[in-house]
Amino acid sequence: MQRRKGSCTTILVGKDASIDGSTIIARNDDGHEALDPQRFVVVTPDKQPREYTSVISKVTIDLPDNPLRYTSMPNAILTDGIWPAAGINSKNVAMSATETITTNPRILGIDPYEEKGIGEEDLVTLVLPYIHSAREGVERLGALLKEYGTYEPNGIAFSDQNEVWWLETIGGHHWAAIRIPDDAYVVAPNRMNIDDYNFNSKDTLYSDDLPDMIEEHQLNPDFMGVNLRHIFGSATVKDTVYNNPRAWYGQKYFTPDVDQDPMDQDLPFICRPKRKITIEDVKFVLSSHFENTVYDPYGNGTEEQKALFRPIGINRNHNVHILELRNHVPNEIAGIHWLAYGANTFNTVVPFYANVNDTPVSYRDADGTFDLNKMYWLSSTTALLGDTDYDMYADFRNTFVLQAMTAFRGIQAKADQEIKDNKDKSSAEKQAYLEQVNEELAKVSMEKATKLLGDMVIFGSNHMKLRYSLND
Fold first, then answer.
1. Which GO molecular function entries does the Swiss-Prot or TrEMBL record give (predicted)?
2. Given 8, 17, 144, 449, which residue is catalytic?
């Protein structure tokens, strides 16, 4: 029925766990195919539909007449619908949808999927333009799930400047959400992730009848407590090689003193980091492939070890977005939509300001035609070449990331100060300025990514197998 992306990895960071007091929700938007061009756009209120019809399920939903402006990351090819993936709205509320998760027949037998319901294709469009807080996002999506149901299992992240929330769908019409503690982080792969759960906490929201359903149908396998992953999720052999190792590696990076098994079905959901988390940390984990372990596909393990686990950074990464909501800057520049395209091992994220009405062409207008003037295709080309000899090209990548992120941080610092120093300028003037800054960021990004590809081609040409030791 539907094309599910099905391969993402999510990271959530509370404001006291980040280096500067920001909330962070981030995700690799992966798919079944290696290439699926993406775009970065702004949806202004006049472009938001008032009646929405899903391409996949055909459900039609009337939408409110007061949408907010929001950034969005739709597919470039709309055969299967918009699939907006993630964004930040004009009230500095962020949403990332979705992380495809797992389930089991016990819940599906009670609450089967709704074929004419809503799914990943639809969620950002239906929710993000109408919410003023992360909690409100959970409540709106919960109401939509109750009314229309869903045809697939998904995890969805919401954040504002104070809170981070994670919602997981349960069966066709049920759901549960939890507020991530301010001092905590989460690494969520493609499984049901929420574990220990307290229905009486102010930090949980859920379908009204969820506790009664668990008791009535005897769904809880544990002698003590409520663990939603045990009740509604899976614990399969696939989880041990496809999902659990990704959570294990992320937790190993953020909390290195904790000793865990990569195949463990009970790796914790809520974790505390050893030190405060940076944007660079989040990007590293979402680009990672089990570096410094025997499971690294580019490493020195046996062929069986290198192929055992599904890495986080993979050829099926279509974009990585890190949605940062800052707390120590004016609200006009609080929302930063960090973005990169393609397989994440050979790209770097760009800190685009969300408070704008348009986005740079090189990030906005990709389609199915190969074009190195569009960042999606440039990043995909660099990743393909880098994959042919990782050890030979890794230092080029490392230099590129350092230089690009340094340039981006410098541009951002200057722009932040400009906004702080010109408080009396109108909103329109500030937005116009931030659009110019985003253009500069995109220009620098394209220049540095093009140089990286050129350096790799020039160096790699001397190491091709098609060569001979004698010259003319």
1. cysteine-type exopeptidase activity; dipeptidase activity
2. 8
